[in-house]
Amino acid sequence: MSNNSSSYESDLENSIVLNVNLDALKKSASNVFQVQCTSIQEFNEGGFHKVYILKVEDGKKYIGRLAISVNPQWKTESE
């Protein structure tokens, strides 16, 4: 295992779990899209992001991606 791998594993072990305030996410989405966000469904989670499907009143669906707090260097490299 390379030094990068062990450093990455250490970063993950010490990372903070992302607790998402879904009500705040709904409010933010409503402000951004100028229409009421009616539901949020967790879609997927990777090493660096949580992905949600946001449904709004007019029937449209949007994808929301939130970064998970890990070592910023690893997150940037994942982009």
UniProtKB/TrEMBL annotation:
It comes from the Eukaryota. This is 17375_t:CDS:1. It comes from Racocetra fulgida.
